[in-house]
Amino acid sequence: MAKKEKPLLFEKEKPPRVLTALKGADGLTRCPWPGVDPLYVAYHDEEWGVPEYDDRAMFEKLVLDGFQAGLSWITILRKRPAFRQAFDGFDPNKIVRWSDKKKHALMQDAGIVRNRAKIEATVALARIVLDFSDKGGFARHLWSFVDGRPIDNARHSFKDVPAETEVSRAIAKDLRARGGNFVGPTIIYAFMQATGMVNDHLADCCRHEACRALAHKLEP
What we know:
single chain; two-stranded parallel sheet; 45% helix
């Protein structure tokens, strides 16, 4: 008697990704990506897209965006307090003096993402930041690529948001030429969104107009 074939098991279909603004339980309409995670929602409401002009804050965000490569941002966000402690508060003056012993200790720290290449990239980026200390500052240099003022988009769906742009490619090229690593155009565009160099909150999001109102021109 012929053996019956087992029916094929198909992977459960995933629901389609939401790309438009959603109304939350609190009645506020937001970009869809934070979901309902309180930490993620707070990050969306209080940080993402707010124009940042501080050198150290910009340095921290760029380093963490580099560590995110291959991971989700919520993973990095949950580890951010541990990163801040392990990375000397993201003080570039301290980071450029990291010894091999310090780097080895970081590789044993389960609280952060342990990646030797990214740790070395952090030191290299700290040097770049310090190189601008007598040239107007690191933040001012980055903002010069958008003429000192945020690029204000008013999209209604994330399907229209690019992974990289001409500006992010230009910044990536500049930083790489200065010795930067993990600063590709996709990472840079995510960094630009987070630091308010570009306002990519959806037009229907409660934070779009709020972030627009916080923007001002950073003179060269």
